[in-house]
């Protein structure tokens, strides 16, 4: 084996090790690196009580109710398998709407409801001019 | 690799790089100007985001070139370590600065887009954090490569760092697929795009324009570094006489 081939082998091995490291990082971090809990994560693993967490999912169609005080909004977050009722008092982001993605920051209550201190709208990967989109707006899942 | 070693001679490289630099620069500048004009005036707004969508014409090419720049550093590093290509160390150093600048442009434009769209300037989600890490890794590479060159190194230490840093590229790419993140999933794949054609079309123009500008900057920096090395060698020779 010439010195050059030896170096080439070493570099290829290093690249394979780097790729393996990336795969390990991606899979091992898994849930740790998740930005938010989905309602079905909570249903499966129990309520993360007493700490600030994020809850993400789709705002269920027809679930948004605004309270009489004008600032409190109630809605239901769903991921298709489980749902969580959310309460938030404050200014909602422009892109907050039904059948669209949302990430709520706040805490779970013991009864399973979620009290948000901040709302983030999650945008999906679709970009359309208004005349194409019409009045239809729907994001199917957050996996997209 | 005979094709690569055709440019091993700096004189031959300069003979090609010198006329190529202005061609890449002006072609890139014209394409970026066309892309900006088209993106700002000729495309419709998005049905949800409104006019904010136009940031993608800067943000997406900057993100791709930020990652593409590191691929260039990795390839140069391999060429240096395996074939001892004499221009590889200079090429890696030349790519690092514009790569870091494009990564920074990606982060800043993303933040500006995130405020009206998500309702936040910054969140520590997988995509945003891994892209910020790439920017820091660029900064570290720039410092390391400069230190190595200053003390007369042959660039092998930064080259090892350049290969190790590629670990971030798949993490950035797949962060939005493997983890749930605030950042949306990929809109553009090899064969499909979920961006409507009416909005999408200036993007390839911008991507090509930015790439040509990137190439022009890399050539300028490589020429400047070669000239610097030459003048230093001449000074050293004069000092010893």
TrEMBL record, chain A:
Topology term for the membrane: Single-pass type II membrane protein
InterPro entries xref list: CcmE, CcmE-like_sf, NA-bd_OB-fold
Any Pfam family hit: CcmE
Record bears the keyword Signal: yes
Extracellular side: 29-144
Signal peptide residues on this chain, from the entry's feature table: 1-33
UniProt binding sites for heme: 123, 127
Topological domain spans for side Cytoplasmic: 1-7
Keywords: Cell membrane, Cytochrome c-type biogenesis, Heme, Iron, Membrane, Metal-binding, Signal, Signal-anchor, Transmembrane, Transmembrane helix
Subcellular location: Cell membrane; Membrane
Function comment: Heme chaperone required for the biogenesis of c-type cytochromes. Transiently binds heme delivered by CcmC and transfers the heme to apo-cytochromes in a process facilitated by CcmF and CcmH.
Family statement drawn from the similarity comment of this UniProt entry: Belongs to the CcmE/CycJ family.
Matching PANTHER family: CYTOCHROME C-TYPE BIOGENESIS PROTEIN CCME HOMOLOG, MITOCHONDRIAL
UniProt-recorded name of the protein: Cytochrome c-type biogenesis protein CcmE
Organism: Sphingomonas aurea
TrEMBL record, chain B:
Sequence ranges assigned to domain Cytochrome c assembly protein in this UniProt record: 30-183
Compartments where located: Cell inner membrane; Membrane
Entry keyword annotation includes Transmembrane helix: yes
Keywords: Cell inner membrane, Cell membrane, Cytochrome c-type biogenesis, Membrane, Transmembrane, Transmembrane helix, Transport
Regions crossing the membrane: 20-40, 60-83, 95-114, 126-145, 157-179, 199-220
One Pfam family hit: Cytochrom_C_asm
Membrane topology: Multi-pass membrane protein
Chain's role: Required for the export of heme to the periplasm for the biogenesis of c-type cytochromes.
Family assignment from sequence similarity: Belongs to the CcmC/CycZ/HelC family.
PANTHER family the record matches: CYTOCHROME B_B6 PROTEIN-RELATED, HEME EXPORTER PROTEIN C
The protein, known as: Heme exporter protein C
Gene that this polypeptide is encoded by: ccmC
């Amino acid at each position: 084996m010439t010195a050059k081939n030896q170096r080439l082998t070493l570099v290829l091995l290093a690249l394979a090790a780097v790729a393996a490291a990336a795969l390990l990082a991606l899979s091992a971090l898994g849930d740790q690196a998740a930005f938010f809990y989905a309602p079905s994560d909570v249903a499966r693993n129990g309520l993360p009580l007493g700490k600030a967490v994020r809850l993400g999912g789709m705002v269920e169609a027809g679930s948004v109710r605004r309270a009489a005080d004008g600032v409190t909004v109630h809605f239901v977050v769903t991921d298709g398998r489980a749902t969580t009722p959310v309460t938030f008092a404050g200014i909602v982001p422009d892109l907050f709407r039904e059948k669209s993605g949302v990430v709520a920051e706040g805490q779970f209550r013991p009864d399973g409801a979620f009290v948000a201190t901040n709302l983030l709208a999650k945008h999906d990967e679709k970009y359309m001019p208004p005349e194409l989109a019409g009045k239809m707006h729907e994001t199917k899942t957050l996996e997209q | 690799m005979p094709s690569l070693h055709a440019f091993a001679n700096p004189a031959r490289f300069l003979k090609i790089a010198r006329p190529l630099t202005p061609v890449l620069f002006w072609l890139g500048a014209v394409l970026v100007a066309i892309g900006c004009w088209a993106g700002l005036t000729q495309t419709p707004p998005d049905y949800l985001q409104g006019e904010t969508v136009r940031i993608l014409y800067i943000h997406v090419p900057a993100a791709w070139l930020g990652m593409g720049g590191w691929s260039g550093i990795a390839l140069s590093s391999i060429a240096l370590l395996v074939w001892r290509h004499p221009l590889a160390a200079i090429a890696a150093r030349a790519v690092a600065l514009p790569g870091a600048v494009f990564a920074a442009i990606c982060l800043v434009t993303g933040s500006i887009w995130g405020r009206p769209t998500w309702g936040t300037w910054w969140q520590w989600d997988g995509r945003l954090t891994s892209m910020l890490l790439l920017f820091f890794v660029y900064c570290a590479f720039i410092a390391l490569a400069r230190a190595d060159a200053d003390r007369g190194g042959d660039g092998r230490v930064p080259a090892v760092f350049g290969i190790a840093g590629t670990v971030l590229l798949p993490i950035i790419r797949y962060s939005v697929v493997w983890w749930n993140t605030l950042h949306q999933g990929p809109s553009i794949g090899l064969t499909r795009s979920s961006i409507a054609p009416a909005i999408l079309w200036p993007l390839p123009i911008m991507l090509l324009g930015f790439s040509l500008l990137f190439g022009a900057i890399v050539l300028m920096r490589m020429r400047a570094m070669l000239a610097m090395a030459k003048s230093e060698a001449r000074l050293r020779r004069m000092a010893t006489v």
